[in-house]
Design brief:
The protein has 7 helices and 10 strands. By secondary structure, the protein is of the alpha/beta class. The chain has one domain: P-loop containing nucleotide triphosphate hydrolases (Rossmann fold, 3-Layer(aba) Sandwich), CATH 3.40.50. The strands form 2 sheets. A 6-stranded mixed sheet has the order 6-7-8-3-9-10. Strands 2-1-4-5 form a 4-stranded antiparallel sheet, covered by helices on one side. Strand 9 and strand 10 form a beta hairpin. The longest helix is centred in the last third of the chain and has 16 residues. The structure holds adenosine-5'-diphosphate (ADP) and magnesium ion. Adenosine-5'-diphosphate binds next to strand 1, strand 2 and helix 1.
């Protein structure tokens, strides 16, 4: 079994006004390549904290995050942002597209950090736009798109740097039930193609579409349940 990422005894404390909040306490789990994992739990249970750590946006107080050959919890800021920009895909509840840029330009944003904007990259972004069903919207700007279309742009953007995994924070949180279904079908399709997805959601019917659900309670794993086997990657 190959691992997309391994989390070992991860702990995160926040200190505010002299008080310590234990946001994550000794959390351990492995994500096999090709898994589609949901992280669920009540508000304040540590979901965003965990996603931020997996996304190289923050560093743990203790413990390890093993990504390929790197323990990312020990890297300096430069190396951390390099990995974040070059090898992790992000999908947010509010899409986080750049309003001034077209669909194609938004998909290419992660490549700016790698100075990889050549004709091959352009072909790749057109292919990704086609894959998410936006072939006829390449020159549109985010305000000219529906919420579901904007989230499709974000999904295409999350794939352009061939990420170790895609982190999705409440990806359907702003969408109606019909559009939610469209986005879930797209995520399922990507997962069947072998992409590893880690998604935070508080909606049970969204979590049920993934392969596995880890529940957090007060910063600890209260259950880790597999619903489906990991997709055989091609
Ligand atoms: N930057 C921060 N500074 C201080 N406390 C924080 C910070 N971020 C989160 N917390 C606290 O850590 C705990 C976990 O928060 P969070 O990871 O955002 O939970 P969730 O995403 O599950 O709602 C909460 O008690 C929250 O108040
Ligand atoms: Mg949160």
């Amino acid at each position: 079994m190959k691992w997309a990422v391994r989390v070992e005894r991860l702990t995160k404390d926040y200190v505010m006004d002299g008080e310590t909040v234990h946001a994550l306490r000794d959390v351990s789990f492995d994500v096999p390549e090709g898994d589609f994992l949901s992280i669920m739990g009540a508000s304040g249970s540590g979901k965003s904290t965990l996603l931020n750590l997996l996304g190289c946006l923050d560093r743990p107080t203790a413990g390890q995050i093993l990504l390929g050959d790197d323990d990312i919890s020990r890297l300096d800021d430069n190396r951390l942002s390099e990995i974040r920009a070059s090898r992790i895909g992000f999908i947010f509840q509010s899409y986080n597209l750049i309003p001034q840029l077209t669909v194609l330009e938004n998909i290419e944003v992660p490549l700016h950090y790698q100075r990889r904007l050549d004709s091959r990259a352009r072909r790749q972004s057109v292919e990704l736009a086609e894959m998410v069903g936006l072939a006829d919207r390449l020159k549109h700007r985010p305000t000219q798109l529906s919420g579901g279309q904007q989230q499709r742009v974000a999904i295409a953007r999350s794939l352009i740097n061939d990420p170790y995994y895609i982190l999705a924070d409440e990806p359907t949180g702003n969408l109606d039930s019909h559009t939610t279904e469209e986005i879930l079908l797209l995520l399922e399709e990507l997962n069947h193609q072998g992409k590893t997805i880690v998604m935070v959601t508080h909606e049970p019917e969204v979590g049920d579409r993934s392969n596995r659900i880890i529940r957090l309670r007060d910063g600890e794993i209260s259950s880790d349940k597999r619903l489906r086997e990991v997709a055989e990657s091609l």
